[in-house]
Design goal:
By secondary structure, the protein is of the alpha/beta class. Helices cover 37% and strands 18% of the residues. The strands form three sheets. It has an eight-stranded parallel barrel with strand order 1-2-3-5-8-9-10-13, surrounded by six helices. The protein has a two-stranded antiparallel sheet with strand order 6-7.
């Protein structure tokens, strides 16, 4: 199972010094990929909670975030081997030509190392700020994906969708990866898996809720592939995780949240479960608290990586 890392992109630790040290150490240690998030804003009075049904405040660190694609381009310029991915970019907030060209540019400048992780977003505040209707976001996503694939592959690009139009045009250059960079889709609904089977090359899930929810996602992933005309080997299953070593007031094992534990072995048991479930890649996102340290983070994930081999 391949191992990727989320870079220090949010909060008070999102500095050039931390970023450079982190990506250099990660590449030196041989991690397969480095990943960035996408968060547009921090609403003062959010319409939705962050990962909860109530309207509680979002995590404090989201008040300060580096732009994902600019950050990814910076990482590309300061690395030479590690793959570069987004987990995820909310594609709905972008024009398909602009978004496709941004990923193409990073793919060219990184010599073919970019991975496109896309989602449709969920924050109504971000939709409002983008002047995009919250309704029919799934159909809009289908349009965007079809348009981008034409931009990446067709010598003469022409697209007549329900939401986007491209007049007959030459749009270059093309990406180094052929036919285009790998497309991974993230989301929570069955429609996400249908979209993945039709337009994508894999799925980005998350192990942050219950284990039951995770296994249900794996089932929907496999069911979607079975209904398509493609095989499992054509799809990439990536899971984003948030490993956390509990230091005080440790819960009982039966109450333990995924990827949390009193010991490395407890967290590692979840990674072993992911591997046995057929996960191709795990992304480790270590919380960037105020006491965050790059060297300690790299040592922490090195211990966890042993369970992925």
């Amino acid at each position: 199972m391949k191992v990727g890392l989320v870079v220090p992109q949010f909060g008070i630790n999102a500095t050039k010094e931390n970023l450079v040290r982190f990506i250099n150490l990660a590449e030196r240690e041989g991690y397969e990929s480095l990943w960035v998030y996408h968060r547009m804003l921090y609403p003062i009075d959010p319409q939705q909670g962050y990962g909860t049904p109530d309207k509680s405040q979002w995590p404090e660190y989201l008040k300060n975030s580096l732009d994902p694609l600019t950050t990814l381009a910076f990482i590309a310029a300061n690395t030479s081997k590690v793959n570069l991915g987004t987990c995820i970019i909310d594609m709905i907030f972008h024009n398909p030509i602009t978004l496709a060209k941004e990923f193409t540019t990073i793919d060219i400048l990184s010599e073919g190392r970019v991975i496109c992780g896309f989602g449709i977003g969920w924050s109504k505040d971000e939709y409002l700020a983008s002047n995009i209707p919250y309704e029919k976001r799934g159909e809009r996503a289908d349009d965007i994906l079809q348009a981008m694939k034409k931009i990446w592959t067709d010598d003469i690009v022409e697209f007549d969708g329900n939401f986007y139009k491209i007049p007959k045009s030459i749009i270059g250059p093309k990406s180094i990866q052929k036919p285009h960079p790998k497309i991974l889709l993230g989301g929570l609904s069955p429609k996400t898996f249908e979209r993945m089977a039709k337009h994508g090359d894999g799925y980005i899930g998350v192990l942050a809720g219950s284990f039951e929810y995770f296994h249900n996602s794996i089932k929907m992933f496999n069911d979607a592939i079975e209904k398509s005309f493609r095989t499992r080997k054509n799809f990439d299953l990536t899971i984003l995780t948030y490993p956390y070593l509990v230091k005080n007031n440790s819960p009982e094992e039966s109450d333990r949240a995924p990827m949390t534990g009193r010991t490395i072995d407890e967290i590692g048991s979840d990674l072993s479960m992911l591997k046995s479930s057929g996960v191709d890649r795990v992304i480790l996102a270590v919380n960037t608290d105020k006491d965050y340290d790059v060297n300690e983070t790299i040592e922490f994930v090195k211990e966890l990586r042993k369970f992925c081999q």
